[in-house]
Amino acid sequence: MKTVKLLIVGLDAATLDLINPWVAKGKLPNIAHLMSAGASGRLASIVPPVTPQAWTSFMTGKNPGKHGIFEFMEMPSGTYSLRYLDASSRRAKTIWRMLNEAGYTVGTMNIPFTYPPEHLDGFQISGMATPSEDSPFIYPPELRSELEGSLGRFRLDQRFLGFMSTNPRRRQVLDDMKNLDSQWLRASLYLIEKHPADVMMFTFMSID
Questions:
Q1: Do 85 and 178 touch, CB atoms closer than 8 A?
Q2: How far is residue 135 from each of residues 6, 131, 147, 181, 195, measured CA to CA in Å?
Q3: Among 199, 198, 189, which residue's Cα sits nearest to residue 147?
Q4: Could you tell me if residue 131 is left (phi over 0), alpha (psi between -120 and 50 degrees) or otherwise beta?
Q5: Buried (b) or exposed (e) across 140-165, using 16+ Cβ within 10 A?
């Protein structure tokens, strides 16, 4: 049976100023074990440290001047209009493509700015910047029907945090985030079991 050679878990905004005190209090035993048995440290980010360029730099190893993603929106040349960016504006090869070219299979899920998903040897389920649940955000497309048949219809991450204007509404949104993370966790475990790739990455965004 095929096994995963490398598993990457992305925790958006899980900064050490939060993690270290909670590890010290015994609230994060699994992360504490990873830190003690491996290596951990503070990393420099992109300037400014904003989601689109930071995650794209992570995937390409290049700065925004080389990969072309600077913000959530861009102004097309010769116009004063704005349009939302996605992976189609990326001007650099991702590590997922490089791994494929080196003979490794790859599976990724919910990484920001991976829509439209790359046609990889493996699979890709795009994350933030996916237009809607109805868009073709899962490659290969037949994987979508399989996942929805086993796990139910996918929902994208919470977008309207301005709704959290009262305590009841805040609790409602936090409960919704918990359900979304449970969805991504169920999908991760299913994919590891049913569609293992050499390199897999699953990202959780609700912490941010």
A1: no
A2: 29, 6, 15, 20, 22
A3: 189
A4: alpha
A5: eeebbeebeeeeeebebbbeeeeeee
Round to whole Å and give the CA distance between 37 and 2: 26
Query: What does the pLDDT profile of the chain (208 residues) look like in tens digits?
Result: 678 999 999 998 888 999 999 999 999 999 999 999 988 888 888 887 888 999 999 999 999 999 999 888 888 888 888 888 899 999 999 999 999 999 999 999 999 999 999 999 999 999 999 999 999 999 999 999 999 999 998 888 766 666 678 888 888 888 888 999 999 999 999 999 999 999 999 999 888 7
HSE-up (13 A, CA, CB side) for residue 170: 3
Residue 32 has which token pair? 């504490």
The predicted structure's pLDDT at residue 160: 64
Task: Identify whether the C-beta of residue 163 lies closer than 8 Å to the C-beta of residue 173.
Answer: yes
Residue 152 corresponds to which amino acid? Answer: G
Q: Which of 56, 54, 50, 199 is nearest to 126 (CA)?
A: 56
pTM of the complete model: 0.90
